Amino acid sequence: MHAIQTENLTKIFTVNQKDPGLRGAVKALFRPSRKQVLAVDRVSLSVEPGEIVGYIGVNGAGKSTTIKMLTGVLMPTSGSVRVLGRDPHRQRVANAREIGVVFGQRTQLWWDLALIESLNLIAGIYDIPPKRYRELLERFSEMLELKELLKTPIRNMSLGQKMRSELAAALIHEPKVLFLDEPTIGLDLIVKERIRQFIREHNQQYGTTVILTTHDLGDIEELCQRVMIIDKGGMIYDGPLATIRQRFGRERTLTFEVHPRHLGDLRQHAERMQLPQGARVEAQNGGSSGGRLVVRFDRTLTSASQVAASLMGQVEVVDFSLSEPDLASIVRQIYGGALENGNGKEGKV
Amino acid sequence: MLRYARLYWLFLIQRLKILMEYRLNFFIGAFSFLAMQSVGLVGVWAIMRQVPSLNGWSFNELLFIYGLITLAKSMNHMFADNLWTLGQSYIRTGGFDRFMVRPINPLFHLLADRFCHDGIGELVVGGVLVGYTSRALGIPWTLANFLYLLLAVLTGSVIFVALNLFTATSAFWIVESVPVTLVVFNTHEFAYYPLTMYHRFIQVAMTWLIPYGFASFYPASYLLGREVGVMAWVGTLVAGVLLLLAYQVWKFGLQHYSSTGS
Amino acid sequence: MSAALKGLRRTLRISGAFLSTSPKVFMAYSIWFWMEIIVTVFSMVIFLYFWRAIYASSGQATLSGLSLNQTLNYIILARVIGPALENRMIFNFGYYIREGLIAIEMLRPVDFQFRNYIEMLGLMFMSLLTKVPLILIAVLFFGLQLPTSAAAWAAFVIAMLLGHAVLFLFDWLYACLAFYSTETWGLGVVREAVALLFSGGLLPLVMLPGWLQAIASGLPFAQGLYVPIALLSGILPPEAAPRLWLVQLAWIAGLLLASRLLFSVSVRKVTVQGG
Ligand SMILES: Nc1ncnc2c1ncn2[C@@H]1O[C@H](COP(=O)(O)OP(=O)(O)OP(=O)(O)O)[C@@H](O)[C@H]1O
Ligand SMILES: [Mg+2]
Asked: N or C: which end of chain B has fewer CB within 10 A?
C-alpha cells in the first residue's frame, strides 16, 4: 500500500471580487462577481512508506493547498486522495489519528498555555496512553531541547522555540505520516540544522513518511532524496534530487560594484569584457555611487576566483558578492524546460 | 461520549488556569454585566410601580420570566460563546485548520476551546432572580417542579445554541458572521415579556420560527400555574429538532471551509 | 489665535475627508449597517407593544402626566439618537497614556481639548446622518411624530449642541481618571450603566420615582440626552427651552473649568514621571 496516493487531484477556489469605489461596493451587494482560482491542477503522485519527499514551488504554486487536501482540511474539487488507504476528508477522524501536521506559518498550540499544558491537552485529544506519553515527552524534550521550555507559554517563545514545540506536538501521537508546510521558515541556521536532524532521526527510527514543503534548498538537500516540483498548480517534476542539482544547481552569480569613473562607458565595458569560459555578463546598470555588473557562471566550468580575477584586471572593483541560486530561479528554469515534455513525468526534466 | 466529557474537563481546567491570570478582568466583566442588567430592571420596576400589572403579569412574575431566560442564556454564554468568534478568530486567520487535522469533532473542539466565564455572572443573576421570585410568588419546589425547571433551562439553552449555530455557520461563506448572528440573537429580547402582549404574528414567530418563547414564557406560565396545556412540553421537542437541523447545516458548511491562502 | 484657526481648518478638512469617504466605508460594512437597522427596529416593536400593554393595564390615559403617544415618541427618539452621543473618551485616554502619546499630542499647535471636541462633534453629525433611515422608518411605521414648528426644532438643535458639549466635557473630566488607574474598561462600564438610567435613555425621567429624579438632576447625563429629546418629542414645550439652555450653559462653564484644571494637573504628573 502507498502511504500517499493522489489521482488528478484538483482544487478550485471561488473568490469574491470587489471592484473599487462606491459603485463596486453597491454592485457587490447585489451581484457579487466571482473569480475561479485553479490552485491545484490534476496532480497525481504517490509516496511510499518511509520516504522523505520535498515538495517545492514558487509562492502561490499550490503547495499548501495540496497539503491541506492531503490532511483533510480541504475537500478536493475533483480527483482522488488516499492517505494510508483512507479518504482524508470523508474519513477525517480516522485519518487524523495517523497523521501529524505542522503549518509553519501558524501555531497549532494554545497561545496562552505553557507548552507542557498544550501537550497534555493534545495527549488527551489523541488518547495517548499515559505511560507512552511520558516516554515520548522525555525523548522529545531531550532531542529538541525543550526541557527548559516546558513551563513557558507559547506566546512568550521565540520563533525557533515555537517551531521545536510544534514539532513535538505534531509527533507526540506517533503519526505514520508527517506533513510539514515550511517548517524552517524564518529560522536561523542553528535551529534549522537541529530541526532537520530531528526529522531525519525520527524518520530513520520510526519509518515515518514525511512530506515537506520549503523555500530553503538546504532543507531539501539535507533531507530528501526525492523532490516534487509544482508550478501554477501542476506537477512539473517528480524525481531524484540529484538530477536537479546536476542540471540546475550549477549556476552561480557574482555581483560587482565598479568604480564610478567607469560609469560613463559601463555598457562598452560590459560588451568588451573578456571572461573565462562558462561566464557571461548578465546585466549592468549605473547608479550614483557607481555601476554594477552581474556575472553568471557555471561552477563546473570555472570558479568564482577565476571570474573575479579576470574581471578585476579589466575594471576597478569597489566591492563584490557571490550568491547561490535560489530555489525560485531553479524552479523557473525547470518550468521553462519542462514544457517541452508536456507534464514532466517520473525522473524526467 | 465519556471521552468527550473527559476531554471537555481537560480543556476547562486549562481555560480556568488562563482565566486566573486575568482574574481582575473576570470581576470587571461580571460586574459590568450585573450593572447593566440591574439598571434595566430598575427601569422596568419604575414603570411597573405605577400600574397593577402588565397584561395580568405582576412585576415579580416578569422577573421570573426574565430569570428563566437569563439562565438559559448564561449556559449558551458559558459553553457556546466561541460560535460568535468563529469567523473572526478561526476562519479569517485559518486557525480552524487545526481543528480539521485533529481526531475529534471540530464543533466540539471549537466550543471546548473557550469556556466563557462572562456567563457566570448571568448564571448568578438568573439563579437569584428565579430563586427570589419563586419564593415571593409561592411556587412550591416539589421534585417535579424542580426537574421541570432543569428541563426548561436545558431546552432554552439548546434553543440559544442551535440558533447561534445556524447563523455562525454562515461564516464558512461570508466569514463576518457576527452581524447575522446578532440580528437573530437579539430577537430573544422579545421573550423577556409575556408573549401574550404581542400581535398574534409575533407570538407565532417566537414559538415556531425563532422559538425563544420556549426559553421563558411557556415554562414560566406552566410553573406559575397558568394554562398553557401541551405547550409546556413541546419546547423540548422543538429545541431538539432545531439543534439537529442546525448541526446538519453546520456539517454542510464544513465542506465549504476553504481555509486561507497563506 | 491664527494657529488655532489653522488647526480648526485642518480638523474640518480632515473631517470633510472623513465625511466623503464614509459612504464607501458604510457600504463596505453595509452588513453592519443593516444589522443595526434591523436590531433597532426589533426593539422599537418591543417598546411599542410593551408600552401599549402598560397603558392598557393602567386603565388611565396618562402615566406621570404623559400620554402613550408622548411616551412612545420619546422612547423611540431616545433609543435612536442616544447612541450618537456616545463618546468613549476614557478608552482614548487609556490608549494615549499606555502608548505614551499624551506628550506628543500636547506638542501640537491646537489646543488638545478643543481639537478633540471638534472631532467628537464631527463624529456625532456623522452618526446622526446614519440614523436618518431609522427615523424615517419610525415615522412611517411606528407613528413617530416630529415637531412641525420651527421653534421646537431650533430648541432641539441648540439643546443637542449644548448637551453634546456637556457630555464631552464631563467625559473629559471622567477620562482623567485614566491617569490614575489602568482599569479604563471597568470605569467605562460604570459610566455607561449610570448614564443609561440617569440620562433618560431607558424611559422619560419624569417616570422615575422622586428620589431617582433628584439624583438624575444632580448628574450631567440628562443634559445630554433627556433635555434635547424631551424638546424634540414634545414632552417639553419650546417655551421651556431658554431656561434649559441656561442650565446647560451653567454645566458647560463649570465642567470646562473643572476638566481643564484636572487635565493639566494630571498631565503634569505624567510628564514629571516621564510616562
Ligand atoms: N483559501 C483560499 N481561498 C482562495 N484562494 C486561495 C486560498 N488558498 C490558496 N489560494 C490560492 O491558491 C493558489 C495556491 O496557493 P497555496 O497557498 O497553495 O500556494 P503555496 O505554494 O503554498 O505558496 P507559498 O509558497 O506562498 O506558501 C494561490 O493563487 C492562492 O492565492
Ligand atoms: Mg504555502
From this structure: N
C-alpha distance from B235 to closest chain C C-alpha (Å): 22
Reported ipTM: 0.91
Cα(C246)–Cα(C186) distance, integer angstroms: 33
Q: How many CB atoms lie within 10 A of CB B65?
A: 25
What per-residue string of b and e applies to B31-43 under the rule 16 or more CB within 10 Å gives b? ebbbbebebbbbb
Residues of A in contact with B100 (CB under 8 A): 71-73, 92, 96
Helix (H, G, I), strand (E, B) or coil at C247: helix
Instruction: Give the nearest chain A residue to C34 (CA atoms).
Output: A29
Query: For residues A55 and A230, is the Cβ–Cβ distance under 8 A?
Result: yes
CB contacts, 8 Å: B198 with chain C: 49
Using DSSP, state whether C9 is helix, strand or coil: helix
- C111 alpha carbon – ligand 1 mean position (Å): 50
- Interface-testing mutation among C19, C21, C24, C32, with chain A (most A C-beta atoms within 10 A): C24
The span from the CA of A213 to the CA of A108, in Å, is: 17
Q: Hey, is A323 helix, strand or coil?
A: strand
Which comes out higher in pLDDT, residue B261 or A276? A276
Q: Residue A27 half-sphere exposure, CB side, CA atoms within 13 Å?
A: 12
Query: What are B's interface residues with C at a Cβ cutoff of 8 A?
Result: 24-25, 28, 31-32, 35-36, 38-40, 42-43, 46-47, 49-56, 174, 176, 179-180, 182-183, 186-187, 189-190, 192-193, 197-199, 202
Distance to chain A for C35, nearest Cα, Å: 14
Question: Nearest to residue B14, comparing CAs of A103, A148, A109?
Answer: A109
Positive or negative, the Cα torsion across A208, A209, A215, A217?
positive
Reduce the DSSP state of residue A186 to 3 states and report it.
Answer: coil
| Side-chain half-sphere CA neighbours of A181 within 13 A | 23
Question: Which ligand has the nearest atom to the CA of A70?
Answer: 1
Residue with more model confidence, C87 or B5: B5
Please state the domain extents for chain C: 3-266
Span A267-295, pLDDT tens digits = 777 778 888 888 888 777 766 566 888 88
Tell how far the Cα of A328 is from the centroid of ligand 2, in angstroms.
14
